[in-house]
Design goal:
Layout: E1 3-7, H1 10-22, E2 27-31, E3 45-49, H2 57-73, E4 78-82, H3 95-106, E5 111-114, E6 122-125, E7 128-131, E8 134-135, H4 154-159, E9 166-169, H5 171-175, H6 178-190, E10 195-198, H7 203-213, E11 218-221, H8 229-237, E12 254-259, H9 264-275, E13 280-282, H10 285-290, H11 295-303, E14 311-314, H12 319-329, H13 331-348, E15 354-360, H14 362-372, E16 376-384, E17 387-392, E18 399-403, H15 412-415
Parallel strand pairs: 1-3, 1-4, 2-3, 4-11, 5-10, 5-11, 9-10, 12-14, 12-15, 13-14, 15-18
Antiparallel strand pairs: 2-16, 6-7, 7-8, 16-17, 17-18
Helix pairs in contact: 2-3, 6-7, 11-13, 12-13, 13-14
Bound molecules: adenosine-5'-triphosphate (ATP) and the ligand O=C(O)[C@@H](O)C(=O)CO.
Pfam family, one: SBD_N
GO molecular function: ATP binding; kinase activity
Domain Four-carbon acid sugar kinase N-terminal: 3-229
């Protein structure tokens, strides 16, 4: 196996797995550390999806090291630590502490951090992260329910999370191509930095960074910076890309959308689905907390909905509504109440004939997939950048589209079904 990847959340893992598969690596995604007996022998890349983004840093480090160990045992030659393209984290972690721990694990003394994903509007210029042209701290990420991002300068953000010295390889070096990027890495190393934020404004930059860093024992970033790795590996092995898999068959059955993300993209997608007349149930966090509403009442509602189209169950709310709920219930507690309700609903879905699921939100997807006991995924076609259809590799046969909160066009919930046979 060429590349072993540790992703800090499920939709992020799917995003990375799609990038690697699309660029020609045979890729398998596992939910948690691969179980014993899972056949990884045909895979060029394995992406292990953890749920470590929001847990305390020591726990994130422990989970990540366990995954790295398993990947190394399965033959991974290089490691990739995948986090969010909007650098979701707090001053306590977890991007810094996990990067440090994986550096130590690989024995490497240098790595890069690049969260740019231009296809989804994330660019990094002079170390500052922009989301659709707006500095991170002015974007909707400033209101994220769990990791509000209030500083766009990633050198500063990462330096607050790590004892390793953080440097910068900026746009001019990246624009000049792989050799200039390699020289910039050497320059930053000589200056005493062990992690460098790398600028990238477009896919050509990402491919050049991939070529320059393909032999690093450890890379870190969003899925974008993995874009150039498959071609770099092929260059070193003089091989050609395997042809992409043909078509995507989904198991027959009913369709449902579960949305726990409150991101601006998900809010738009929920609004578009409601306007299109998709039958929908809104979960109110305060009613869930009081017991007035529950997974059971949601399932009762679901049983009364028409079988021939998707239904939507969502807790998606505006930043003001989320803040009001959090001030009463606490940030983590509110999230937990909503996630466990959606997980409770998910658990009952196969028995009701639901086999095709779209789930919106990384934490939400983690909770849902755990409830469904899915432990490995094959990667199917791209619905929108960063979001493929996937199919469970064992256990209950399901087609799953696990959507990162901020990804997808407004009609994502409507159009995704067209790709299924
Ligand atoms: N109405 C609500 N009030 C308070 N918290 C909510 C509400 N709806 C959802 N949440 C919580 O907000 C969090 C949303 O995180 P999630 O990772 O699912 O979405 P996201 O952050 O938009 O997506 P991603 O991580 O992919 O960017 C979850 O913990 C969820 O339970
Ligand atoms: O990188 C991204 O933005 C996504 O893959 C993600 O991690 C959101 O949870």
């Amino acid at each position: 196996m060429k590349l072993g990847c540790v992703a800090d959340d499920l939709t992020g893992a799917t995003d990375l797995a799609l990038m690697l598969a699309r660029e020609g690596l045979r890729t398998i995604q596992t939910i948690g550390v691969p179980r014993a007996g899972l056949d990884l022998s045909g895979a060029d890349a394995v992406v292990v999806a953890l749920k470590s983004r929001m847990v305390p840093a020591p726990e994130a480090v422990a989970q990540s090291l366990t995954a790295a160990e398993a990947l190394k045992k399965a033959g991974a030659q290089h490691l990739f630590f995948k986090y969010c393209s909007t650098f979701d984290s707090t001053d306590e972690g977890n991007i810094g502490p996990v990067s440090e721990a994986l550096l130590a694990f690989t024995g490497a003394d240098f790595t890069l951090a690049c969260s740019a994903f231009p296809a989804n509007g994330r660019t990094v210029y002079k170390g500052h992260l922009f989301v659709n042209g707006v500095p991170l701290h002015e974007s909707s990420m400033k209101d994220h329910p769990l990791t509000p991002m209030r500083d766009s300068n990633l050198v500063r953000v990462l330096q607050r999370q790590t004892k390793r010295s953080v440097g910068l390889v900026s746009y001019e070096d990246v624009e000049a191509g792989p050799d200039a990027i390699r020289s910039a890495f050497e320059r930053e190393k000589a200056a005493g930095h062990q992690i460098v934020i790398v600028d990238a404004l477009n896919d050509a930059h990402l491919r050049a960074i991939g070529l320059a860093a393909a032999d690093f024992p450890l890379m870190t970033g969003g899925s974008g910076v993995a874009m150039g790795l498959p071609a770099a590996y092929r260059q070193s092995e003089r091989s050609t890309a395997p042809s992409p898999s043909k078509g995507f068959d989904a198991p027959a059955g009913r369709s449902i959308i579960l949305a726990g993300s409150c991101s601006s993209a998900t809010r738009e997608q929920v609004k578009t689905a409601l306007e299109a007349g998709v039958p929908a149930l809104r979960l109110d966090a305060m009613e869930l907390a009081s017991g007035a509403m529950s997974a059971k009442t949601a399932l009762e509602w679901l049983k009364t909905q028409p079988a021939n189209g998707p239904a939507l169950i969502y807790s998606t709310a505006t930043p003001d509504e989320v803040q009001a709920v959090q001030s009463k219930l606490g940030r983590m507690n509110a999230g937990e109440i909503v996630e466990s309700t959606l997980a409770g609903i998910a658990k009952a879905l196969p028995a009701l004939g639901f086999t095709r699921l779209i789930v919106a939100g990384g934490e939400t997807s983690g909770a849902v997939v755990n409830a469904l006991d899915v432990d490995a995924l094959a990667i199917g076609p791209e619905i929108d950048p960063g979001v493929p259809w996937t199919r469970s590799l064992a256990g209950i046969d399901l087609a799953l589209a696990l959507k990162s909160g901020n990804f997808g066009t407004p009609d994502f919930f409507l159009k995704a079904w067209n790709l299924l046979r």
